[in-house]
Amino acid sequence: MTAVLEAIGMEKRFPVKQQMLLRRRDTFQALQGIDLALYSGQTLGVVGESGSGKSTLGEIFGDLQQPTSGIVRYKGQDIRSLGEKEYRRFRRNVQYIFQNPKESINPYYTVERILVEPMKILVDGFKPHKARETVREMLNRVGLPDSTLGKYPSELSGGQCQRIAIARALLLSPEVIICDECVSALDVSIQAQILNLLKDLQKEFSTAYLFISHDIGVIHYMSDFIVVINRGRIVEQGEGSQLIRTPKDDYTKRLIASSCSTGEGCVCGVR
């Protein structure tokens, strides 16, 4: 089976400072030798502490930044070699849900415009009347009434804004949604609602998720397969429940222990 998204030998280095006299630039190695594949309908969880490189990995998969070396493939083809038409298809089929919902949507647009605008750009044969009807249907699917369409983000709660972000991503019927800490800014009760909503919508639309979080409990609850990242390297990976039950790497064990001791996440019981 061909992966929807695949990384081969992915590496990312960032310049951190330049020593002018020596003309030498030091770099920070954010990702090292990442080999990873995401398949249709799968939820691939990526977990690690802050600074582990997990968000950088997600941004490279979504082509929000480029790797220093290595290849990212979309359905077997290097995304750097995609033609204009193929890249447009990639942009439509790989969507992103960011950590802070209010920072990822335009505060000066109404909800209706926030949802219609990407369709206008990326959907072939765009028809305004049909798009508005599709938007209303999707809004209802994510649990928001039609009256939300005329509102601005400042009039909505964080949970409502995240539902808008989810609706915006799903409206393009993507094959993949990259969820980068998409519930970490929300209250625990709202987190549970959003996670369950994402699970229900995945069953309906067969969307693959690349789910990124520092919270191994959330990752356990959402994921079919889990990858643990520490200092830019994959230190452990495996089927979700099995990895949680029998972790091998000390770093993974610490993440699980921390989740249980703080009551965070779902390792010690689903919310």
Automatic annotation (TrEMBL):
The record ties this protein, via Pfam families, to: ABC_tran
Protein's UniProt keywords contain tRNA processing = no
Outline the extent of the ABC transporter domain.
16-256
Citing just one GO molecular function, the answer is: ATP binding
Classification via Gene3D superfamilies: P-loop containing nucleotide triphosphate hydrolases (3.40.50.300)
Q: Which InterPro entries match?
A: AAA+_ATPase, ABC_transp_ATP-bind, ABC_transporter-like_ATP-bd, ABC_transporter-like_CS, P-loop_NTPase
Q: Which family does it belong to?
A: Belongs to the ABC transporter superfamily.
The protein depicted here goes by the name: ATP-binding cassette domain-containing protein
